[in-house]
Amino acid sequence: MAPLTIVKCNGCGLIFQNPRFKAEHLNMIYTDSVMDTIDLESEVKHHKFKPLLSLIESKAKSNVQSPLSMDIGTRFGLLPELLRRMGYDSHGIEFNSIVVDSATQNGFKNVHLGTIDTIGDIMNRLGKQRIHLITMTDVIEHLYDPTRDFSALARFQECGDHMVIQTMNAGSLGYRLFGSWWYYIHAQHTFYFDESMMRRLLDRHGYDITYILKVAPWKNITMIRKVWKEFKLHKKERIRRNQSAHMGDKVWYASGKPTLFDIFTVVARKR
Prior knowledge:
Blueprint: E1 6-8, E2 15-17, H1 40-45, H2 50-59, E3 68-72, H3 78-84, E4 89-94, H4 97-105, E5 111-113, H5 119-126, E6 133-137, H6 146-154, E7 162-168, H7 173-178, E8 191-192, H8 195-204, E9 207-214, H9 217-221, H10 224-242, H11 247-251, E10 263-270
Parallel strand pairs: 3-4, 3-6, 4-5, 6-7
Antiparallel strand pairs: 1-2, 2-8, 7-10, 9-10
């Protein structure tokens, strides 16, 4: 097996995994284990989407009644459930059939089995042609071909519709500080975006970024000493796992998570 390396294109600046896993082998780096029983109301009560929901309400709100939303990589469909309670005709797409079955059995609504490749089929089954809000939280970095996927999604949005995308920031202090040992660099992540690359990708598909949410720099500075100690332990564990003969150790990442506030959320509006 070739070692996992991350490279940067000298032309466009895109940061990506090279070599990449073949599409048919991606299931090797994702677990099939899921919870059989999920308390839906407890999940709703203790959710961590409040900043994202506030952002959607203030920066990506649709003027139509009961706008259709689609959450890509939705897992059990918690975000669609929260949006449904805010008045959205909300749906989610999840590629793991075991997760979709569990979501349905536990009362989560409108969790559809599929990927971005099958969004046309899903929209046909729904009898819908337009998605007013597309959400992706911790998803874009997992896509095998972001350009193709954004083209597929953009076909279902019209002028004034929104995408809200949350991902790790390759232009963050954490990335600059930890380099190749940055926590978010691991086998599941195929592409890495900073604000410039995100703006370029969205512009290519007819979107303007209208707002970017990220944590103030001073909050990261106050965490550096604590995170640096965690990082040294994380690096030691990661080296140990890389030397393991077991595939699961090689492609997964250490349990310690030495991270600063390296996430950013982009609101983009279709032109």
